[in-house]
Amino acid sequence: MINLELSARHQETFDQVMMLAEHMMRPYSRKYDREEHSYPREMEEVAKLIGGGRSGGGPREPTPEGTVVNGASMGAVTGLFALCWGDVGLFLGMPGSGLGNAAINAVGTPEQVKKFGKCYAAMCITEPGTGSDSANISTTALADGDEWILNGEKIFVTDGQRCDTLVVWATLDKSLGKAAIKSFIVEKGTPGCEVTRLEHKLGIRASDTASISFSDCRIPRDNILGSPEIAADAEGRKKAFGGVMQTFDNTRPPVAAMAIGVSRAALDMSRQLLEEEGICLQFDKKPLNLSAVEAELYKMEAEWNAAKLLVLKAAWMADNKLPNSMEASMCKAKAGRVGNDITLRCVALCQSLGYSENHLLEKFARDSKILDIFEGTQQIQQLIVARRVLGKSSSELK
Ligand SMILES: Cc1cc2nc3c(=O)[nH]c(=O)nc-3n(C[C@H](O)[C@H](O)[C@H](O)COP(=O)(O)OP(=O)(O)OC[C@H]3O[C@@H](n4cnc5c(N)ncnc54)[C@H](O)[C@@H]3O)c2cc1C
Description:
Elements: H1 8-25, H2 29-34, H3 43-49, H4 51-54, H5 72-86, H6 88-92, H7 99-107, H8 110-116, E1 121-124, E2 140-144, E3 147-158, E4 165-171, E5 181-187, E6 193-198, E7 209-220, E8 224-225, H9 234-276, H10 292-319, H11 325-349, H12 351-355, H13 361-369, H14 378-390
Parallel strand pairs: 1-4
Antiparallel strand pairs: 2-3, 3-7, 4-5, 5-8, 6-7
Helix pairs in contact: 1-5, 5-9, 5-10, 7-9, 9-10, 9-11, 9-13, 10-11, 11-13, 11-14
The structure holds flavin-adenine dinucleotide (FAD).
The site of flavin-adenine dinucleotide (FAD) has 21 residues, from strand 1, strand 3 and helix 14.
């Protein structure tokens, strides 16, 4: 049976990580927002302390009914609620926090997970000519003896400069469409792989976002994630790309969890600032007696809780090995949107205090924007959910 209450163990992890977030991340939030591209060295200590916590740590624990309660995905999203309450940008800039790690753990062979699972891995999908339409990528991978040769350009790679490993989407043969798209592990420092540019950004300025070029970049033949075969029949082709896309089932709930964390931070800070002005939330007050500000805060709290429950559900399903593509997209759509709405509304509610750099509310609003864009935009998540609900294929509903 599904139970979305946090287990005692996850609650304990959450409380501990919140302490780190408050005392070891928040004090550096503004510094690294201003000093874009400088390395947040202080986060190395936080990364060390949460080493086990990020992955959820420890074995899965089945209940008497046979379901898993203390799984790694639930542990990961719970940790992210707290870390991103601390600071999304600093979390993303922390060693070992790469989205590529989730991909390796989701689709890597046991040997690959053992070899690369603990690396700091970034995810390289987006290209100058390809964003949401990820089936259209142009980076190529050519088999040559015991190696693959990669050629192409990737842009907007989060952690692209600081990471030590890249998960790169490339096509074995563009004429064969999405069935020929595979993901490859490239270790940084491999000749032919070069960081060519760093972006200046609206938010998450503590994290680096890089362009990376691959020019006759040779990697070992074993560094392909999944099978190198290109299925001959339509059903097999559909399945093959599904395997690559499966990565997103594991990366979307964590990104949604980041939105839950930063929007909680905005709500907590707004409530504190409003309380200083005499506006306090009393949950037992009759709805008819509410001021407009109170009503708005209650509405945001309700939306926040709904989004959080969707994230927990998608993570719980992943831990229990239940297919969760639709739920992963649902939670990303809801949390991404709610995260943007809440953080921006909090700026408006607190007016000059919200807009000024004396507090972090304006930064929370800037940082949250990306969480509704990367790992699939709001519109793309809605499209995926609609396809699942209506039973339509990607060619039937575009
Ligand atoms: C700070 C930052 C970090 C990033 N990190 C990474 C990373 O680590 N790895 C990586 O690979 N990429 C990363 N990205 C890229 C990100 O995933 C893409 O920006 C995103 O997928 C959207 O692609 P696009 O920018 O090309 O926009 P487009 O795909 O061109 O979309 C433009 C607009 O059209 C909408 N749209 C597109 N198709 C449809 C449709 N069928 N129906 C309705 N609306 C549609 C989109 O929702 C969007 O609003 C990052 C981007 C940024 C800004």
